[in-house]
Design the sequence.
């Protein structure tokens, strides 16, 4: 497992003048405009804002899932906006973990297999052992062979947490991880998320519209109609 | 290796969750279907060709007017071929003051290599089947020899200078050949007595036949070796040339078998394409996740291609096994009809089944699979992001390439393949446009429809592109199914016409003009239906436009065969009803000096309308100008003529009449009476040949029927599977509608409407497609006249509505009974 010792000082993600606009039938739509942001290694940061304010768009640009219309995103000194799609994929595999609002577990796979997947894709022979440890850690040691359909929403999100951490990412992106859960279950998942984040010194970028959740992060930025306020 | 293991694991997980069932089913049908058919066709063909070889008394026969070199026979022996020999010549027999021209055949110890002889041991006794010719010193003769020469069984018959004891009456020999009108009665003797007859002198007119049997590769090798060494008077007999009526039946059957496997491949291909499309769509999320987790585009494609290859290999292997069993089953069902010893199934055909499976998989499944490469990683955040649909040229291009390769392989005729594919492509394009138009026409109707109908039709219009390709897929499947059905019916009709129930089974020749009216009266009085009486003069074609005909013949050709012997020349005021003029016109009424020539012979000898033909009849010369060319069906058992003259041209030459008639089995006594009344008339029995021919046609018919049922079953299975493949979207819609309060009955009705429409459109398109393909297929491949069939079009429409409508309705109905929440979560 990698450790991230240089926490707290070096910037791990840096954006300059980041903007995204799309062509629609009614003309050009500016979703994001000139976002300048520096996220330090080991930091936890919350992106908040109303629905439709551009949070998910920003997250997708930071994680290299989408390309900006203008500006740049630099991760660990590498400008990902200049990389090829495959280059960004490689970077994601190496540095990034994800948790999604809709869990995104593969329905054909058991909990264990879902968690093993990131390691299997890089050909790690210890995939199964590592996945078992993490599932144990999120309290699902007895549900290894269950498929997502046999798990509750909270349980599914805990599997997704295990999957996100299994490859030891430097950065974890979470897009409204409690959005599909009731508040009690959501709180439990968030507790787990922060615990794991702490243990592994991961940089956390959390998108939410829940103020109390945002307050647990080290820093908070607010988006309004595509601009930082 | 790591990738391979991962692919295997992913595949196993998908398989466990039932994600692959539909795809595997489609593949199994494709491979099991094609390998059953190719195994069966290959085996049946080899079985039948052994049977057909009986007509030649060997698998390969070398005919010529000289004895062959010993080195050739040594070569055959080296190759492990078994051989026998027959020598045929004409000789005048003289006994009890009677004279008769007989056809003598000297046979070796091992004759016949294929087939059997039938004989009578006492004059009115039972037929006895034997597998060998007469012993040295004895002769077997046709019955009319005995009556004509006033001999009995056990008497001595002198052939040339050698007296032989007549021990049996010959009733059937397998390799009876030549045209029916020139037959002299047969005498079979042993090869060992040939020398002693003293008939064979240098310069005498003798035909030598050498029969060979053995394993196929060795026969082929021998044939290859032999061909370049043949001299102009020698030729290799081939069932397709020597017995055209059987040859063409076999050839059509082979083509039908080929067509059936292409139909099955096409149907299964459509199913695979649809199943692969569904598989792909259900794996968009996984692909997006893989991208998110760091997989490169190429890796994703490779990962899924590997899975497909693995799946294809497994399913193809299983399909081959099923095909093997299927073929055994088909042969088991056909057993009572087939010869005792069917040929072994060919291993090569199994390999071909496997290769076909993989080819269909790649051809039909690769294009949708390629979309997985294009899935955006952003889909993990925005579910609605879908990759572009697969490029149409890629989807159809690849499928067409695979189909071309398969059709080409079956037909071995690339020109035909190109025309079939070209037509198919054009029809697809036109059909696609037609369907799009039909859908557009539905839209303005919407406001006028009742609410159930409106929702049903809207379902169809919601995703136009998907609807068009679904309708196209269903119409291809339906058209393919109906195609094998229609062609089968026409093929069998054709055979039945060729050999009607009461096809003439006897020929009567040498009827002298003075006796003809009485004979005709006796025939009809005894209830025997006959053809017309044709006057016959024997003569030989010697020159065309004063150029000796020998200069025009090419080796081994029909022209050569027809100019080396006397032809039966006839005359008539008009050409026979079942002949068709292909060039020129009928001669002016009652004008002598014209001749009508059979088209193939004319082509062969390069005879044109207006040419001057010269014939030798007896010691005289006659010439006539070619008035027209005409084509005829050689594969009917009716009297056919190469040359028909205008009345008056052959006046003054001695002639006899020829006719054919049908005599039921029970009427043999009548025949004997007739023969006693008209001792000079020669009656020729082709009943045995006809029966054998009919048996073969019946076997082929049965085989083809079995294949048809097979293709139809596969078609329906695939149709249902394909409908299921389109259901995901509709099920989601239905579940959503139910959460919004739609009643089950209402939803069921809208679905029935939607699928009913889908089926109706597919049925209509299938009917159009079917007629176009039939037209091309009939006129180019089968050479059967085409006629538009409204009935089959209407039937297709009905089948489309019922099968697609019901399949879709059932698929959705199951879901309507469950709670919508469970459905939504499951998807
Ligand atoms: N590809 C796109 N085309 C058009 N509009 C888009 C596209 N992507 C996002 N939007 C719009 O941009 C706005 C911001 O979206 P998003 O980033 O998802 O907001 P949030 O996550 O804060 O709710 C929304 O109004 C959304 O509809
Ligand atoms: Mg969002």
Sequence:
């Amino acid at each position: 497992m990698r450790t991230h010792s240089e926490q707290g000082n070096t910037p791990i993600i840096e954006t300059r003048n980041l903007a995204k606009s799309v062509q629609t039938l009614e003309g050009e739509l500016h979703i994001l405009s000139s976002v300048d942001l520096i996220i330090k290694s080991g930091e936890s940061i919350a992106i908040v804002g109303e629905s439709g304010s551009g949070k998910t768009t920003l997250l997708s640009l930071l994680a290299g899932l989408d390309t900006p219309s203008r500006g740049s995103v630099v991760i660990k000194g590498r400008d990902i906006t200049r990389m090829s799609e495959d280059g960004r994929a490689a970077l994601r595999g190496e540095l990034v973990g994800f948790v999604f609002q809709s869990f995104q577990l593969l329905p054909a796979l058991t909990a264990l297999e879902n968690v093993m997947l990131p390691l299997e894709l890089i050909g790690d022979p210890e995939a199964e052992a590592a996945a078992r440890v993490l599932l144990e850690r999120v309290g699902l040691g007895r549900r290894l062979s269950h498929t997502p359909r046999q798990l509750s929403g909270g349980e599914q999100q805990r599997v997704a947490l295990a999957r996100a951490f299994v490859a030891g990412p430097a950065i974890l992106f979470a897009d409204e991880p409690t959005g599909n859960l009731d508040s009690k279950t959501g709180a439990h998942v968030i507790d787990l998320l922060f615990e794991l984040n702490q243990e592994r010194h991961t940089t956390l970028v959390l998108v939410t519209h829940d103020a109390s959740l945002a307050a647990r992060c080290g820093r908070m930025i607010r988006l309004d109609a595509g601009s930082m306020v | 290796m790591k990738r391979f293991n991962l692919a295997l694991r992913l595949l196993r997980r998908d398989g466990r969750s039932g994600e692959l069932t539909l795809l595997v089913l489609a593949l199994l049908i494709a491979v099991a279907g094609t390998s059953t058919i190719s195994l069966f066709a290959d085996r049946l063909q080899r079985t039948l060709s052994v049977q057909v070889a009986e007509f030649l008394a060997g698998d390969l026969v070398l005919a010529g007017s000289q004895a062959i070199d010993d080195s050739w026979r040594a070569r055959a022996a080296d190759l492990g071929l078994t051989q026998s020999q027959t020598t045929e010549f004409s000789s005048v027999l003289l006994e009890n003051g009677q004279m008769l021209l007989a056809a003598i055949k000297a046979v070796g110890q091992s004759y016949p290599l294929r087939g059997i002889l039938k004989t009578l041991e006492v004059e009115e006794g039972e037929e006895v089947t034997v597998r060998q010719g007469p012993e040295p010193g004895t002769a077997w003769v046709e019955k009319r020899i005995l009556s004509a020469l006033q001999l009995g069984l056990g008497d001595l018959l002198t052939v040339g200078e050698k007296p032989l004891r007549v021990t049996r009456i010959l009733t059937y020999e397998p390799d009876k050949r030549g045209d029916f009108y020139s037959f002299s009665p047969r005498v079979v003797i042993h090869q060992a007595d040939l020398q002693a007859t003293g008939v064979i002198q240098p310069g005498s007119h003798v035909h030598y036949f050498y029969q060979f049997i053995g394993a196929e590769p060795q026969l082929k090798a021998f044939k290859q070796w032999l061909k370049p060494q043949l001299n102009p008077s020698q030729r290799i007999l081939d069932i397709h040339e020597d017995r055209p009526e059987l040859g063409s039946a076999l050839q059509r059957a082979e083509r039908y078998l080929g067509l059936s496997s292409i139909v099955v491949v096409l149907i299964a291909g459509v199913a695979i394409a649809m199943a692969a499309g569904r598989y792909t769509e259900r794996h968009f999320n996984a692909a997006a996740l893989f991208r998110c987790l760091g997989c490169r585009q190429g890796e994703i494609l490779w990962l899924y291609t590997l899975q497909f290859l693995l799946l294809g290999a497994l399913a193809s292997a299983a399909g081959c096994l099923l095909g093997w069993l299927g073929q055994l089953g088909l042969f088991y069902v056909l057993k009572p009809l087939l010869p005792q010893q069917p040929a072994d199934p060919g291993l090569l055909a199994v390999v071909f089944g496997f290769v076909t499976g993989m080819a269909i998989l790649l051809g039909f499944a690769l294009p949708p699979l390629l979309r997985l490469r294009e899935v955006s990683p952003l889909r993990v955040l925005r579910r609605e992001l879908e990759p572009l649909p697969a490029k149409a040229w890629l989807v159809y291009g690849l499928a067409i390439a695979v189909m071309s390769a398969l059709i080409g392989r079956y037909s071995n005729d690339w020109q035909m393949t190109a025309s079939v594919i070209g037509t198919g492509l054009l029809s697809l394009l036109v059909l696609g446009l037609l369907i799009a138009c039909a859908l557009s026409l539905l839209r303005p109707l919407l406001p006028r429809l009742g609410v159930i109908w409106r929702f049903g039709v809207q379902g169809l219009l919601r995703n136009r592109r998907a609807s068009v390709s679904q309708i196209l897929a269903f119409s291809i499947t339906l058209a393919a199914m109906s195609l094998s059905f229609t062609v089968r019916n026409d093929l069998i009709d054709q055979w039945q016409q060729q050999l009607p129930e009461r096809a003439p089974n006897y020929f009567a020749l040498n009827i002298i003009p003075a006796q003809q009216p009485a004979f005709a009266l006796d025939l009809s009085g005894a209830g025997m239906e006959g053809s017309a009486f044709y006057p016959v003069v024997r003569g030989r074609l010697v020159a065309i436009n004063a150029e000796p005909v020998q200069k025009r013949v090419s080796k081994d050709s029909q022209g050569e065969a027809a100019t080396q012997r006397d032809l039966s020349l006839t005359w008539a005021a008009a050409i026979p009803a079942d002949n068709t003029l292909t060039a020129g016109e009928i001669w002016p009424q009652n004008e002598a000096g014209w001749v009508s020539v059979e088209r193939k012979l004319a082509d062969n000898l390069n005879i044109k309308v207006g040419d001057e033909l010269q014939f030798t009849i007896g010691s005289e010369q006659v010439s006539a100008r070619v008035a027209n060319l005409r084509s005829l069906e050689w594969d009917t058992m009716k009297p056919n003529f190469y040359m028909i003259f205008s009345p008056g041209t052959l006046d003054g030459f001695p002639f006899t009449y020829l006719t054919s008639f049908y005599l039921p089995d029970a009427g043999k006594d009548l025949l004997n009476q007739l023969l006693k009344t008209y001792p000079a008339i020669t009656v020729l029995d082709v009943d045995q040949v006809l029966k054998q021919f009919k048996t073969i046609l019946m076997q082929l018919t049965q085989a083809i029927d079995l294949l048809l049922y097979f293709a139809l079953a596969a078609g329906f299975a695939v149709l249902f599977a394909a409908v299921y493949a389109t259901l995901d979207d509709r099920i989601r819609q239905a579940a959503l509608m139910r959460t919004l309060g739609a009643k089950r009955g209402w939803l069921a009705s809208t679905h029935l409407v939607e699928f009913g429409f889908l089926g109706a459109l597919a049925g209509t398109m299938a009917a159009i497609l079917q007629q176009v393909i039939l037209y091309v297929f009939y006129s180019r491949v089968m050479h059967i006249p085409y006629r538009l069939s409204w009935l089959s079009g209407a039937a297709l429409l009905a089948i489309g509505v019922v099968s697609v409508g019901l399949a879709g309705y059932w698929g959705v109905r199951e879901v309507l009974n469950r709670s919508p929440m469970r459905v939504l979560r499951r998807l």
Summary: Residues 22-49+246-412 of chain B form one domain. The radius of gyration of chain B is 34 Å. The CA atoms of residues 545 and 612 of chain B lie 5 Å apart. Chain B touches chain A at residues 2, 6, 9, 13-14, 16-17, 19, 285-286, 289-298, 376-378, 380-383, 825-826 (CB under 8 Å).
